[in-house]
Amino acid sequence: MANDASTVFDLVILGGGSGGYAAALRAAQLGLDVALIEKNKLGGTCLHNGCIPTKALLHAGEIADQARESEQFGVKTSFEGIDIAAVHKYKDDVISGLYKGLQGLVASRKVTYIEGEGRLSSPTSVDVNGQRIEGRHVLLATGSVPRSLPGLVIDGNRIISSDHALVLDRVPQSAIILGGGVIGVEFASAWKSFGTDVTIVEGLPHLVPVEDENSSKLLERAFRKRGIKFNLGTFFQSAEYTETGVKVTLADGKTFEAEVLLVAIGRGPVSQGLGYEEQGVAMDRGYVLVDEFMRTNVPTISAVGDLVPTLQLAHVGFAEGILVAERLAGLKAVPIDYDGVPRVTYCQPEVASVGISEAKAKELYGADKVVTLKYNLAGNGRSKILKTSGEIKLVQVRDGAVVGVHMVGDRMGEQVGEAQLIYNWEALPAEVAQLIHAHPTQNEALGEAHLALAGKPLHSHD
Length: 462
Ligand SMILES: Cc1cc2nc3c(=O)[nH]c(=O)nc-3n(C[C@H](O)[C@H](O)[C@H](O)COP(=O)(O)OP(=O)(O)OC[C@H]3O[C@@H](n4cnc5c(N)ncnc54)[C@H](O)[C@@H]3O)c2cc1C
Description:
Pfam families: Pyr_redox_2, Pyr_redox_dim. This is Dihydrolipoyl dehydrogenase. By secondary structure, the chain is an alpha/beta fold. Helices cover 32% and strands 25% of the residues. The chain is built from 13 helices and 24 strands. The radius of gyration is 24 Å and the shape is globular.
């Protein structure tokens, strides 16, 4: 069908990552005729270079830690080391299983999949492999790539990005990680579990700086305990090669040396040279600008995912893609409340949150209108069994709804589902306190936190 020049698709999608393929699947489900153009692999960053491979490495790291620490549970094992080739095989098997599944899904929904590098050639078409693919509407979903700093050249060997780190054929003896955001702390955690001596360099005053400050501080305490080093509040100045690795100098003159430098300072949009500006699409620093319905300023063009300046998360890409598909199919599209998007950082311990921080709540509602409560996981039986520590912090508007849930502790990412219902349904603490949480689960800690906030604490000293 793609070869038939007379075909006009309902929707032509450029980029087959989380945002693009979600839009394709939903649009096809709603009866639209869809072309999906991808230059590399269907599934994009999340499946091949992001969410899935990092979580596989982190899980392998967790197993290594369990092997090392099993005696405290009365189980005798010996940790003999990391077979990195086998770790990669495990990770790659997970990816290839999901990849096959996704390919099957796209085929079964009768999406026309076109492999090739596309370029926007008019407000209603994309050129790929020497052909013009016409659509009534075009969706831009070309995603993002790792960023670097001026003068800092990523060589893929000693100075690497997350893409390289995911396929590194060795466990580095030592690593400096530039950037203490989500990607930086996840690699710090996995590498430390593998045996690497890790130092994180973060220019802002805290690790995971977009989280509530309490979560950042808890993570910093936990990382200190794990022997993960970090330098906060001073920016990077330069990097140079040494005989055995890399030396990093900070703005205050402090230096650090290690075998590798992982640059994890964020990701920038893929938009250059793709025809967007020529077709009049409004942009800002490479990001495509959209309204709350993911519409660009060009009526026939929408954009989603990491290409637009919203949260860079796979599930945000899915939601934005679905929104576009439903809008184009004539369904009522509901704008996304980005504060209501669950966020998880999968390091050990995990950091999970939904809603707004205490600082933002005070800004929005006034300091005297904001109530907070911290529930320590020390009071939670399941967390004790797992030997994990941490806290759940709730942010509430006085006499009103819970507007922020911030959690730190092993497996806390799994608790964010209920937390997001609480935030998105604007639940009152007393309403959540009324719900019965299974004992002994870590989920119970969320229930206990709300019992305490509703004024009837159970297993809580506060
Ligand atoms: C290390 C790492 C860990 C992450 N972990 C998580 C996580 O745990 N949870 C989470 O929610 N998010 C995570 N993310 C973020 C998540 O991967 C992204 O938010 C998500 O992949 C964005 O989807 P997208 O569709 O916008 O872009 P992408 O997934 O980048 O897809 C864009 C696609 O467009 C294609 N493309 C680009 N240009 C062209 C062209 N000219 N022609 C044809 N095709 C083109 C690319 O090949 C790519 O496949 C992580 C990211 C990284 C890097």
